[in-house]
Amino acid sequence: MRYLLFMIALLVLDSCTQESSKQITDAEDYNVFLGSEESNKTSKYFELWNSKIQPDSMQLMSFGIVAGEYNRYFQETGDIKQLKLAEKALVKAVEIAAIGKSGYYRTLARNYISQHRFKEALELADSSRAMGSGVEESQKLLFDIHMELGSYEKAKHYLDSIKNMSDFDYLIRLAKWNDHRGDLETAIRFMEKAKDKAESSKNSSLMLWSFTNLADYYGHAGRIQDSYDYYLKSLRLDPQNAYAKKGIAWIVFSHEKNPKEALRILNSVTKNYLSPDYYLLKAEIAEYMGNKAEMTNNLDSYAMAVVNPDYGVMYNVYNVGMYLELTEQYNRALKIAEVEVNNRPTPGSYDLLAYSYFKLGEKDKALEIVKQHIEGKTFEPRILYRTAEIYKAKGEYSKVKELKNELLGATYELGPSMENKIINL
């Protein structure tokens, strides 16, 4: 009997192993999207409206349209200069607008969200709502900002104020709220409803947004095939979409353990897409491969990119992660973590602070932060792993065991470099 049970256990383990290593991707599916075509940062439409802007211009419509084009170029290229040019145009639009100022406040606020200037965005959103025009749009914006700031009760208030199960904007925010609460199944259900709305409207930008977000959610849920399918659907809509290519690269790296192919995909992206965080992912993959030279080159490329003052605080979280896990510059990590907690006191920011103290040997202080600001307030796997490390260092082994069981189911999200670390907790 014992032998029979042992053989059944081996068969179950073998089937799980086969499932986890199942080949999902096929290079023939995505090779066509890996060309190095550079996005065009101008158009006849843009040139027409940009020509109307003079140093003393009062052409309000011109500023709004030109800002929209700059923002589109930023989304397509990752070029921070484009986002800053959009900000400049919007600041001028806010300054001269007599009618429709509320809408320009909201658009500028969204620009600031992209720059991680959340407190400034909140001021603009509050001003927009106080003007009494476009109230529902302001409430949606206020939900987004309060989620970023960690003001979750306020965010829920604004979410409830826009309740409409037939509205795309409400559904995507309801999905985000449930993901925050750790109810991924419900988050996926609402995102699927939003996706259906987008498809029925034939709005390509809404479809693209819902496809990429749904792909992310499916990945978090371990539905890797579905995740891959939706990244491919995204690329069929937008062949140059860097985010979808990054998602496929992560599947190739984390699920299929094929770092060389993942790097090939990412190298095709970074030829023209300028977002610095892609270099950190390439550095992580190179480290997993044991290629120290490639890792160092990518870290150098990242460091040279983010020194640009236009980025402001946008890459604070990435910088702290690099200092804590790759370059061991713990004091620098602590300083930036303190800034992040002041800017946005979320569990994620407090995690960076706690882990910085932990790496500096101040374990009691790290545990105090965990208990006050992190414990029971987030389901983010990387935060839970760091929390488990702190618990282990302080001898709270029952909590470590509880988190370890959860983390073992999140190895895809965390990446193959983390598997042994989780096992050894």
From TrEMBL:
Pfam families, alphabetized: TPR_8
Residue ranges of TPR repeats: 208-241
SMART domains, per database record: TPR (SM00028)
Keywords of this entry: TPR repeat
Keyword Transcription part of the UniProt annotation: no
Top-level division of the source organism's lineage: Bacteria
Annotated protein name in UniProt: Tetratricopeptide repeat protein
Native source organism of the sequence: Arenibacter arenosicollis
Lineage, highest ranks first: Bacteria, Pseudomonadati, Bacteroidota, Flavobacteriia, Flavobacteriales
